[in-house]
Amino acid sequence: MTRLSELGESHVLERILSHNRSGSQVIIGPGDDAAVTAVDGNLVSTADMLVENEDFTRAWLDWSRLGTKAAAQNLSDVCVMGAKPHGLLVSLAVPDSTKIEDLEALFAGIVAEAARAGEELGCEVPVIGGDLSSSGLIVIAITALGTVGDHAAITRSGAQPGDSIYLAGTIGRAAAGLDLLFAGVDGDAEVARNDPQLDESLTELITTQLAPQPDYAAVLQMREASAMIDVSDGLSTDLGRVAAASGVHAGIDRASLQDLIDPLLPAAQHLVGSIEGVEPDEGTAGAASEAEELALSWVLNGGEDHGFVASSGQFDTPPVGWRRIGEMRVGSGVSLDGVPVPTSGFSHFGK
Amino acid sequence: MTRLSELGESHVLERILSHNRSGSQVIIGPGDDAAVTAVDGNLVSTADMLVENEDFTRAWLDWSRLGTKAAAQNLSDVCVMGAKPHGLLVSLAVPDSTKIEDLEALFAGIVAEAARAGEELGCEVPVIGGDLSSSGLIVIAITALGTVGDHAAITRSGAQPGDSIYLAGTIGRAAAGLDLLFAGVDGDAEVARNDPQLDESLTELITTQLAPQPDYAAVLQMREASAMIDVSDGLSTDLGRVAAASGVHAGIDRASLQDLIDPLLPAAQHLVGSIEGVEPDEGTAGAASEAEELALSWVLNGGEDHGFVASSGQFDTPPVGWRRIGEMRVGSGVSLDGVPVPTSGFSHFGK
């Protein structure tokens, strides 16, 4: 076990970069003042930062999964514009006392998720630059770059009344995982799998929270979408953003969400049971309904699975990887079976 | 005075982005999942992060200058590749209790420095994306993008024996400013200017540390340089990097540095005097020599002014904005008047 303070910056960088992949677009990679890459088409760029104690805690810390999560949330933002990822810039700040093996696991997690996106989309996604510094708190700031070729980028603002609303991937699972973590269910799936008390389905939800795996390839089926967004802050919030940007109303069919809700019921029952301490002989119906409500709220308001939502008027049946969950109409806001849904999900700074 | 926690994320973003500029290359700016921009030529990209307590402290905190510094250190890395800046992605994490006016000053500082680079180089440099989150520590992670057109990017590896070594801008001033700050000289120039005890020259050095202003335009005179680097970690270290990457020896002439050293002598004398408590009647010659040594060490080993060093065999007299400071020779390493100079400057993680 070697700590970073025993290695020095240049050796730490060497160890980390040994996990990197290259790409044919890279003219000058990490090691100079800046990277130089050959870009084909318009450039797509996005940046996201994960900060310890705000976005994760040491109690849940699995370095490799943290890398997966950091990469996934940036790559999904690039892909959902209809773009192919081009490369990542990775800035890391970690404590001096960090083990080099942990930092390598973090970086390798980033590289692996970028490679997965590249395999799904037929492109290479190397880490082309970044920064490394020491800090009391762990901070991971990633910029993901991508390119859009012949067709224009897909924005939030093109949805039309009459368009169907489609979902790829899952929603609600990461939010369920977060509530399980907050309730003290152990975040380390390896430990959890050895604990017969814990249902495997619960540990899988935690894994979705800690290391989401967006269905990047699904975007390829939606290149002609009128609008598309990454569900990072919750279906209600993110669909609300599309509705606001496009000047339409987004009507969700509750029935279309049922097979996203059902797999979350064991976790919801686990939490409702443990919080309420409901006796089996009394109030079982009440607890079941409460669990159903909790599962629905995860699906409606939970982000971080990085499912994708798109609108299109072009399909009779949803393309592979997508399900129809509603329709855009004249108006504003979001509704569930006609009942308005609040669109203010997670917000930094309290409101 | 309004704190971020009273405003909520969307209003905070609105306030910040009111300070942003746009650019004709921007197809989709901040507000969607990712930005889309039109790139002309190959892409140049670099990322740097400033972390509170590692790169600055609250005691020195001037939000606007912090923005200047964060932008300058990224923009200089793009420019020194021979590229024109294209845009910035800015990820900020600040405490909930931060005043909105302070966060606006930070962002406006970034925007102003990007605009200054754009004016010097004839391009527009908007903030095209980023991220905002709350955190116990202030973190500023910036990615700077640029483009290189007809000519290839300038790297660290093209220096040839016989090339002259040139410097643009200053070196040593930010390091002197840092030592003054560590010695308790107040970092706020406004306060300092009202304090007759403090020489204006000292406060200017502190300003260089807190808000360096690289001479971006100088790069335009060095487009045919064989190698170029931003002096961020110190002349010895960064010239050492060029020497290592190019497989040459970099010989510095001490005499060429004298008019960089001289303006630092008052600060060096101030610090040597306050540290040593030297009596005027004894050891004055010793203190003077110690001050000269300190000033030389700032010039040789201090980074963060973001001066630029380049090598070229093409000029009889240095181009405007540049001075000749030595020559590349066969060999390796760096020397000052023939005496080897250590090339291991600032390093994170202790070594």
What does this structure look like?
The structure is a homodimer of 351-residue chains. The first copy, chain A, is globular. The first copy, chain A, has helices at residues 4-7, 9-17, 63-79, 100-121, 173-182, 189-193, 200-210, 235-246, 258-261, 265-276, 284-301, and strands at residues 26-28, 35-37, 42-51, 84-94, 127-134, 139-148, 164-168, 227-231, 249-252, 307-312, 322-329, 334-336, 339-341. Chain A folds into two domains: 8-148, PurM-like, N-terminal domain (60s Ribosomal Protein L30, Chain: A), CATH 3.30.1330.10; 164-341, Phosphoribosyl-aminoimidazole Synthetase, Chain A, domain 2 (Alpha-Beta Complex), CATH 3.90.650. The first copy, chain A, starts with a helix and ends in a 10-residue tail after the last strand. Chain A is built from eleven helices and 13 strands. With 351 residues, chain A is α+β, with helices and mostly antiparallel strands. The interface between A and B is large, with 72 and 71 residues. Strand 2 (35-37) of chain A pairs antiparallel with strand 3 of chain B, so a sheet runs across the interface. Chains A, B: Keywords: ATP-binding, Kinase, Magnesium, Metal-binding, Nucleotide-binding, Thiamine biosynthesis, Transferase.
